[in-house]
Amino acid sequence: MNPDIIVVGAGLAGLTAARRLTQAGRRVRVLEARERVGGRTQTLNLPQTGLSVDVGGQWVGPNQPHVMALIHELGLEVYPTHDEGQNIALLGGKTLHYRGLIPPLSPLVLADYALLSHKFEALVRSIPLEAPWTAPDAAELDAQTFDTWIGKHARRPQTRALMRLYAGAVFSADPAEMSMLHALTYTAHGGGINGHTLTRGHALQDRVLGGAGGISQRLADDLEDVQLNSPVIRVEQDGQGVTLHTPDGTHRAAHVVFAVPPTLLSGLPFHPPLPARRAQLQQRLPMGAVIKFMAVYERPFWREAGLSGMAISDVGPVTVTFDNSPPQGSPGVLLGFIEGHAARDLMDVGEDQRWEAALGSLARLFGDEALTPIETVQRDWTAEPFSGGCYGALFGPGVWTGYGEALRTPVGRIHWAGAETARVWMNYMDGAVESGERVAAELLG
């Protein structure tokens, strides 16, 4: 018997949509191209230590109601990110220790940053979350890059460095790769800069006990029809339904939900062709570039020096680090991100060369003890064919104002979900869950 609805993509968005539709009595089939569920989340058990680590998305916070409600619904638990101790900032050749958000820079730099962030946050508050193309001065904001705006409004090199570090940490991209309207929209989805970058009370507060991959696994375990290794290679739509072709056969349903990054659909044949605006949108949404790595140590030695494990650096390739140790505190784990141009520089080299560069960065921040981990793991998300990169899609100049209206608009019996389509917390796990719930309500309504 054919299902009522097919969901393409077994990440958080697709599985959430399938769960809500199934709960409402619909017959749902999920098709996933990978050999696993989880999409841009994945939990691995390391072979030497047996430690469970997230090589994909991992953080949730109390200001993210959709994913937190789903975690509790599934009977999972969270625990706090370690943030006790002093943070490190390596900026302009100087190493600074500090607590809070902003390093102890000179009064002139702090004043410049305060003025710049005030201007930025004022613009953030003007952005309609669901329709940023309707914002005041949307065309002007969308015609320039985030980097252009930073260069125009930041007077001090350290201020520009801080804002560019924010772009790398939050977008996994350089500010020159996105429009100013996109930077504002994305920031607005999290309630401002602090919502994206702080721990307690914000997006980085908690991690899922056992790993964030457990969310998708529990969602999939509760569904009856999840088919892995089933990439869709052709889509045909008529007045009665949609037929999906895979290498192993065809699947038909009255409606289909695509819950995958839009760029992955740009080469997929649709018959009849998608409307021009939707097709053009998919061609204009490249993914961010990030390599996530972790170094495991017998103990979190940085805590003994009064350090939190959190660091920012304008010397690459690692620009952001966190203490990613398990809740019991041992073994110690340092997590580092290589993002944007730094990730592209290391795309084509071997893992050993990446590790040499990454561990060198850790040693600059935490000392030579960082050079001798007992175990390591890395994930280059730019090399993932069914993700295309991480954390999410980048809207370059002109995309929001020219094509944004097509982002969530159904095309006949074809509907769109995924973290890129979220109305809050775009490209976060919370946004993925919200998009799945939205598309389920859309179909049920």
From TrEMBL:
Pfam families named among the record's database cross-references: Amino_oxidase
UniProt keyword list: Oxidoreductase
Organism whose genome encodes this protein: Deinococcus arenicola
Cofactor: FAD
Family, per entry: Belongs to the flavin monoamine oxidase family.
Protein name from the UniProt record: Flavin monoamine oxidase family protein
Annotated ranges, domain Amine oxidase: 12-444
Domain of life per record: Bacteria
Record carries keyword Oxidoreductase: yes
InterPro entries: Amino_oxidase, FAD/NAD-bd_sf, Flavin_amine_oxidase, Flavin_MAO
